[in-house]
User: What shape does this take?
Amino acid sequence: MMAERVLVVAPTLQGTGNHTTCMRIAQGLMSRPMEEDGTSKRLPAMEVSVVGALKPRAKKEILQKVQKGRVRCLIGLHALKAGRHLIDQKLPYAIIIGGTDVNEYEFLDTPSKKIVQTCLQKARIIIAFSRSLRNSVLKMSTNVKSKIRIIPQAVQIPHLCTPLAQPEVSFEADEKPHTPRSHVFFLPASIRAVKDPLYLVQAFKTWHQSYPHLGVTLRIAGAPLDSKMVAKLKRECGPGVEYVGLLTREQTIGEMRRCAAVINSSVSEGMSGVILEAMALGKSPVIVRAIEGNLDIVSHNKTGYTYKTPKKFLAIAKAIVEYRNTPTSEAKRKTVDERSGVEIAPPQEVIENAVKVVRSEHSTEKEATEYRSVVAELISS
Assistant: This one.
């Protein structure tokens, strides 16, 4: 049986969430689904090619692959960056909505918004990671409701293939006095405006200056996409703030396994893959900015912590440090910052809840099945 050929068009810059998402979806489509008895399901094999949407010759490369034949459908990630290459295609396509597609262009009368809207109108299927993204799409194009499918992001990291291990730095402290240690709060994000990597910088500098013995540090890692913002960030680095540049995927996972907490400070998110990865690892809690995309996956005091201001963030972070430095026999059920009135659930409890939710709602098998259904619908239409 001849393989069905699918063309995936997406921003593929190494070290970004788009790259991780694109490659995971492509691998899922090429994998063979299994029956309960361990045998392969009788489904047609799929051959998947990936084209980088940001390449100067992306449109020409897509055209060449289509003209060679056997390409049956296309899947685009990001209605602007990939959609601009798809809107003139005669083959059916599905478009996966990114957070910036709807959160940044919704209220602007710009060429970018027109490309996004045209892409949505011409798409056979529109894929949103969450209900909030779906609702944002409908604000831009009210007549596409019947085409929208909600497929949550999945998580694919080696840790999920093995039994849960004990954290290197456990929040379940023993009876012995703790030795002083540093507390690194890790912010994995590309350096660009939408990720707002400078949002918590001043708060950390002040915290470190006031309590240098705690060794609290904001460690930022990500692709330097905005040169002016990178320069500004580097000027702000010093005691309490570090920028370590772009890390490999393995290095990023290593940081997430060892840190006090994984942070998100974005002003806009579709569904953060790196936050889902941090939750799946089961090593450190996540603290995310209270915006729609984050609130779709993080429930405050249940699967992570949410904040709206640097002041609220600091209260949560200080409570986490208190937990890390307090033996179990002295730790309270909840830690309260008396000055701000912030109350947090025990980090270890939050971590365990996060692992359960991610494993049940964001599995790669479930995601692959959903995208196979999308391809089948595109080919049959």
About this structure: The longest strand covers residues 4-10. The mean pLDDT is 84.
